[in-house]
C-alpha cells in the first residue's frame, strides 16, 4: 500500500496524554495547529488560516513525546497521512485526516527567544543569569568553538 508522507511544523493544542491499548501498547493522540504565515505588501508578517492535524504516535515515540512536550510547544512531525472515517453518536458520518508519526521533534525556530512558541518540556540549555541563552565560547587560538574537535 502506498502512503502519503507529510511533514508539518506547528504548535501543540493540548498536552500530550499517554494511553495504552488493552495489550499494553503505548500511544498518544495530539492536535497540532499549523498556521500559514506570509508577508503582506508592506513586508510585515501576517498570519493566514490555521489547519488542525491529528497526530498519532506509538510505542517509545509516544512515551518520549508525552515526557518532553506540552501545550504550545512548536513541533515538527513527519509521518504517514491517512483518512479515517467514523460515525458520531448521532449517526452522522464523518472523516478526518490523521498523521501517524514516524518522527516528532521540537522546532528550534523560536527556542532562543524562550517564548510560548518555543514550547514546553524539559529542554536543557546553558543560560546566563537573566535567563537568556549563553553563546558558545570560542577558543582563543582558532575559529572553532570551545569543546569542538580540531581535526
Tell me briefly what this model is.
The chain is mainly β. The chain has one helix at 59-68, and strands at residues 4-12, 18-20, 26-39, 45-58, 74-87, 93-106.
Largest sheet: 5 strands, mixed, barrel
Overall 3D form? globular
Enumerate the spans where pLDDT stays under 50 for 5 or more consecutive residues. 115-151
Structural class: mainly beta
Query: Strands of the biggest beta sheet: in what spatial order?
Result: 1-3-4-6-5
β-strand number: 6
Q: Report the span from N to C terminus.
A: 46 Å
Number of helices: 1
Strand content: over 45%
The whole-number mean of residue pLDDT values reads: 81
Helix percentage range: under 10%
Alpha carbon gyration radius: 20 Å
Could you spell the SSE succession in H and E letters?
Answer: EEEEHEE
What this model shows, in words?
- This protein is globular.
- A hairpin with a 5-residue loop joins β5 and β6.
- 7% of the residues lie in helices and 45% in strands.
- The longest helix is centred in the middle third of the chain and has 10 residues, at 59-68.
- It starts with a strand and ends in a 45-residue tail after the last strand.
- It has 151 residues and is mainly beta.
- The protein has a five-stranded mixed β-barrel.
